[in-house]
Amino acid sequence: MTIFLKKTRIALSLSLACLGVVASTHSTLAYSAETSFYSTRNHLPKLQFDLAIGDNQRLTAKDLEGKVVLVYFGYTYCPDVCPTTMAELALMKSSLTAQQQEQVQVLMISVDPHRDTPKRLAQYLEAFGMGALGVTGTEREIADIAKRYRVAYQIEKPQNPEYPTMYDVMHAEGIYVFDQQGRASFLASNSHDIETMRDRIIELLN
Questions:
Q1: What was the pLDDT predicted at 12?
Q2: Residues forming a β-bridge with 70
Q3: H or E element in which residue 52 lies
Q4: Using CA atoms, how far apart are residues 22 and 170, in angstroms rounded to an integer?
Q5: Which of 40, 43, 64, 120 would you label with 175, given CA atoms 20 to 30 Å apart?
Q6: To the nearest 5 percent, what fractions of the chain are helix, strand and coil?
Q7: Which of 60, 38, 35, 65 shows the shortest CA–CA distance to 50?
């Protein structure tokens, strides 16, 4: 239990640190304390990426044009925050009409490029049943896109040298939402306020 709480605190701290960077860089950034939603329009760059989605396959921002895209930086070995977020996003998306669901795409960008292969990401996200896509890349590619959107994450060293693939990744839990033209619209510090997120997405779709 102590380990779980420690990881959660670190993840939340990184999330708040990430949001703090955005707020301090752009003093006009609109924030709603009640719902923890930040307006990022004109304050963050447009959606832009080119990452691996399958064997010898790439996914780019251009492939998602015309959709509202919810971007989450996480990893499949995450014990708590990531599966909770994916489940809540799936629930939120299920509350939309069938036509609206077709226009909304959840995208998970792995911050664990050493273990998260495209195949593993696809299998992980399939369990949530919302058509989410998972992409990964080289360590440099992930670091570059994280820097582009001011995403905080840190890959910890393995505690036991005999098991080099057993390690934790601390990361922010913010969800970046881009409109149909790829413009940054808002940033939710977490996925817990499902109703407000749904309403904001419907506004973008309209």
A1: 40
A2: 106, 177
A3: strand 50-54
A4: 19
A5: 120
A6: 40, 25, 40
A7: 60
**Whole-angstrom Cα distance, residue 74 to residue 171?**
7
Q: For 157, how many CA atoms within 13 A lie in the half-sphere containing its CB?
A: 3
Query: Which segments are annotated as binding site?
Result: 78, 82, 171
Instruction: For the chain, list residues with pLDDT below 70.
Output: 1-35
Strands (E), 113-168: 133-135, 153-155
Domains and CATH numbers, the chain: 44-205 (3.40.30.10)
User: Which pTM value belongs to this model?
Assistant: 0.82
Quick one: CA dihedral 95, 97, 102, 103, positive or negative?
A: negative
What pLDDT was estimated at residue 159?
81
Q: Are 130 and 90 in contact (CB under 8 A)?
A: yes
Alpha-carbon distance 93 to 105, whole Å?
Answer: 9
Amino acid at site 52: A
Cβ-defined contacts of 93-100 (< 8 Å, 24+): 93/130, 94/130, 95/194, 95/198, 96/198, 96/201, 96/202, 100/201, 100/202, 100/205
Q: How do strand 133-135 and strand 104-110 relate by DSSP bridges?
A: parallel
The residue among 134, 140, 153 whose CA lies nearest residue 53 is: 134
When computed from its CA atoms, the radius of gyration of the chain, rounded to whole angstroms, is 16
- 8 Å CB contact between 149 and 176: yes
Structure-token pair, residue 179: 């409109």
Annotated binding-site residues for Cu cation read: 78, 82, 171
